[in-house]
Amino acid sequence: MQLRDPAHLVSPRAIAYWTVRAVPLWILVLAGELLWWWGSREHTGLHVALLALTVLFAAAHLIVMPRWRYRVHRWEVTPTAVYTQSGWLIQERRIAPLSRVQTVDTERGPLEQLFRLANVTVTTASAAGPLRIYGLDRATAEGMVAELTEVTSHSQGDAT
Amino acid sequence: MSVPGVEQNASWRRLSARMLLVHPVRELGQSIPALIGLVVAGRAMGDGQMWWLAPLAVVVVVGLSVLRWVTTTYRITPEQVQLRTGLLQRKMISTPADRVRTVHVTASALHRVLGLAKVEIGTGSHESGSGLSLDSLGVAEAAGLRAELLHRSAVASSDRPGSVTSLDTGAGAVDMPGGAALGAVPVAEAAAPDQDTELARMDPRWVRFAPFTMSGVLGAAAILGIGSRLLDQAGVSVSDVGPLKVGLDYVRRTPIWLDVLQGLVGLVAFVTVLSIGGYALSYWGFRLTRHPGGSLHITRGLLTTRATSIEERRLRGVELAEPLLLRVVHAARLSGITTGLKSKGGADGGSSMLLPPAPGAVAREVAAQILRDQAPVDVPLIAHGPAARRRRFMRALLASLFLIVAAGVAIWAGASLWVALAAVATVPVAVMLAVDRYRSLGHAIAGDFLVTRAGSLYRRRDVLERDGIIGWNVRQTFFQRRAGLATLTATTAAGRQQYAVRDVPLPVALSLADRALPGLLDDFLAAPGRPI
Lengths: 160, 532
Known about the structure:
The structure holds two protein chains of two kinds. Chain A is built from four helices and seven strands.
């Protein structure tokens, strides 16, 4: 028994978004190392090696991670369920029946607005199982929220 | 169905006036460190001129509790439970009566002397402070209120559409030790409280399991911590206290191995006494009963008595916990997986406790009775296979390897060679841990329940009603993907919110998910034979 991938990819602009989002962390690390070097003014070779290694890792991360994510992040909504796939090193697939969906939110952070992206969060009665889809095209996200709201408004019960 | 007694109850009521005796005593007790501080400060600040500070504080504390009594009123109307508090900042909390999910009745020793009890009404909301607490009512009034509220919410909920009642079906198939034929009693007529069926009662011999729980260790740590803080606050050095000074002198005169041995023996004795005391205090007189109206009742406590009720329709399963130490003496604990209770923390963090540490056989039998199904408790679990076993060993041995490397670095930096020996000694421990962790790992589907078990130091068998599962998370780390394993997590609105089947081969995980909730995965399955 095997699961297939969810049908839809996220927006290709998500690659740029994930790259930009990861940059500040690496800048912080590099700044820390530079400060340390400036403070100690010894072991020049060691510091240069460390810096070079960090730059190498940063480049690898910034190049590999977004593209890997883009290949993994997928989503699908059927008349009965929501199905998402996310992650890169750690990958996770989440399935929730629409009859158990409680809220559907869409959110656009400042960075996401810059890339004209939106994310959608589908929550159930469990605190453990929100389904998040990042890097959606804004129109897609809005259409999806409308569709989900329409479907879930017909279901009965308190979804626990 | 009309609820008797509502008309008379619709006016605003005060808490019992006897609470005036409870609050000052307790609040004075709580503020003793502050009072000591005031006295010390008063003495230090001037030649006794500030002596009036302490009595003033006492007056303020007493005054505040009188004020609280005067300003706190509550009432119960057919639709609402309302509580008004506060003098300057008036606050009114209302809760729809049919939302009441739990009613706890607690009575501390002081309460009991005065014939009082504290009633906490839980609505199952995740917001903190949303519950109502009535501290205190007379015992009879508290018991009446509890029965009234629970009965009413049971009546209100039984005709609500869509509520899951599958736990309530098939009653009578399990034989009860109390001897009552539960299934034969129609629910509506069986509301009389004296028809409860007893599922479990504490046997005083169970106290022997107390030293095998962590409660004694935690208690000892707390006592030592508070003790040292008190000494510190009072400005006393440890070596100045008479008995301790004698002890320290003795330690200086005797060889070190003797000190260590005596210290260990003393500590073990201390922890044992504490844990036994704690067990007796918490669980003395423990009784678990089933009310025909569809709820479980727990009463317990030696000095402070507690009464808790759990509606069975909110019970989505049980957790059978067997920590390593308890397993050594063949004991286990039981707690409920319930919706609408706060999952962690808070004063009622233990409210889903169903059985204190008790013999394993008893725990399993009680679990089967609560679930009305023997299968989930006894069913042999399906092991997760060689890849999962390799992963257990890999993780345990990696931890050992890390310690050995760390020891190597430490020795290189000048530490004693004993460090290396200690690090190497962790290898057999790691191996044993891995073996046991793999042996614990397993899952099954038994009737209406998903069963999953994992852990060694803290082994838990979770039995979750399949109906209560509201989604699946299939998680694979990089290494899990290479090993073809996945962690399948069932999400639920009850208990811990998620119950995981760890490191199970991916196809097995999917077929398990498919069997537990048939139909949900159908749309997303790959055509057989097609690679992904």
